[in-house]
Amino acid sequence: MAAEAAALDxxxxxxxxxxAVRGERPAIREKDLGIWQTWSWKQFADExxxxxxxxxxxxxxxxxxxxxxGDNRPRLYAAMCAAQCLGAVPVPLYQDAVAxxxxxxxxxxxxxxxxxxxxxxxxxxxxxxxxxPSLEHIYFDDPRGLRKYAQPQLTSYxxxxxxxxxxxxxxxxxxxxxxxxxxGEDPAAMxxxxxxxxxxxxxxLTHHALIDRARAAAEMEGLGDEDVALAYLPPAWIGQNIFxxxxxxxxxxxxxxxxxxxxVITDMREIGPTYYFAPPRVLEALLTQVSIRMxxxxxxxxxxxxxxxxxxxxxxxxxxxxxxxxxxxRLRYWLGDLFVYGPLRNALGMSRVRVAYTAGExxxxxxxxxxxxxxxxxxxxxxxxxxxxxxxxQPNGQVKPDTVGPPVRGVELxxxxxxxxxxxxxxxxxxxxxxxxxxxxxxxxxxxxxxxDAGYFDPDGHLKIIDRVKDVGKLADGTLFAPKxxxxxxxxxxxxxxxxxxxxGRDRVCAFISIDMDAVGNWAERxxxxxxxxxxxxxxxxxxxxxxxCVEQVNADLAADAELAGSQIHRFLILHKELEAxxxxxxxxxxxxxxxxxEKYAPLVAxxxxxxxxxxxxxxxxxEDGRTxxxxxxxxxxxxxxxxxxxxxxxx
Length: 652
Hints:
Blueprint: H1 2-7, H2 11-21, E1 26-32, E2 35-40, H3 41-57, E3 65-69, H4 74-85, E4 89-93, H5 99-108, E5 113-116, H6 119-127, E6 137-140, E7 154-156, H7 157-170, H8 172-181, E8 187-192, E9 202-206, H9 207-221, E10 228-230, H10 238-251, E11 254-257, H11 264-271, E12 275-277, H12 280-296, H13 299-320, H14 327-347, E13 355-358, H15 365-373, E14 378-382, E15 392-393, E16 412-415, E17 420-424, E18 431-432, H16 436-442, E19 449-457, E20 463-468, E21 473-474, E22 480-481, H17 483-491, E23 496-502, E24 509-515, H18 517-526, H19 534-538, H20 541-558, E25 569-574, H21 594-600, H22 602-609, E26 614-622, E27 628-639, H23 646-651
Parallel strand pairs: 1-11, 3-4, 3-5, 5-6, 6-7, 10-11, 12-13, 13-14, 24-25
Antiparallel strand pairs: 1-2, 8-9, 9-18, 14-15, 16-17, 17-19, 19-20, 21-22, 23-24, 25-27, 26-27
Helix pairs in contact: 2-3, 3-4, 3-7, 5-6, 7-8, 9-10, 12-18, 13-14, 13-15
């Protein structure tokens, strides 16, 4: 078994293995025009062979880079593997990135070949051609809208297949030879970091790094070819790539590509994934939908929901972990599962989920407990692009809301005196592409990767991440200030979409709040509160009172924490707009760019700390089609109710 694994040291070799041993089993499904289309492992391998030969005819060779931009589609993953067959390196790009954001990775990697899903992505690539002279070939999958395009760089996917099929018939041994040349130490893919604080960096990961980490986690969870996963997040994000490409090629399980972002929940209910991954923002959005639906339900249904959810919070996690729970409580939970939890899991598309992960950023403890309380085996994992994702995973029966579990097999962890986490792992990246200085700063001579994350081990050896080292600070009186922790507590409430906390070096904590338009809009409509749009709704006194209660509850929880009681939120304002990646306020993985926001909205921060009751703001917003508009508003500032630390109250 070990010898076989050693021989299957690249993704193309793994693909040929699956085509040989489970050729008729499903490898990948795509919902198209409402119907699920399935590729078997043999069909997938045949498609890769044809594409690889076509790309070779077009000039793609070992060491080259190939960009891929689009949603999760079988053809995108086939092109990724086809490039790897030739020893080329796939470079997935975010499909929602604007054209200017695509220019840097294409320039940096000197990309000559790119696969674009449709007209939207083709237009972006054509827009930056003058800035990216290396880009000579653009292959498009969906031809709609492209019939009259005459640029010489364009080739349809179908034409590429025709070229490849002819080449494969002439010389089928060519591709087998190229695949055999591949080694586990070869670069398998390059992922660009989100650029939260600096220019994005190309993270080079080898076949060995990705395969080793994918296998370690799969063995831990007992994943096999009977499992089913959903591929719905950006393929350019390492998290989605590991679950929809690396692990399926290691284990043989099937992935399913939803028809669109709007149909994900419906598609989940149809396919019933057994293995699921979602970042906190997705879980927050799902919980918001549940909360809205329950607010609209009848009085009896709301009462039943509140009753059984109270029971679930008390005993649901313990039952899931196999801990001792009284017979009467188990019976009541069984009834709750019959009437509430089961239908709720089905509505979320999670009725068959055996293992679910969340990662990407810290998750609020209350949000985490909610999913586990209704019987979903949601666990936290910790990792990054540079570590091939799997560093720490919570084992079954050892799940805690405030840790990310112990190290996965093969991983070593230690901390610097400043609490920065260092990692040594078989999954570490090779280098930052063309950036030896950044590589040397991140990975020292002994092979330790400096994560930039602050944390510590709990008494059980589980890793606990506080925040980024650079973001963890102190208030003027020395109180610990962990902004991400505060922001996550606020975002548990369905009415809060994003939050940005400030306080390092200051005498108190203040916050920006961005409301969730759907949740707050639904709340307003039920109260017959008229509004004309986001700006109007966000400025209403009633909405400020609603958000004020959320902040008050967060402060009450913080008062019970000995270390964080002094970092309660004293003042807040509701922003005039949602925070957007297109406005550079969020990364493409939806992480808050706190420093950029503080600089961009410096007058608002000054007003919070200056005791003002309102502040005027004028800002430009950018729409998805590239248009910009100016927004003017007078933002109200409100004081929040704070509480004396509970330890102090007990002492008194």
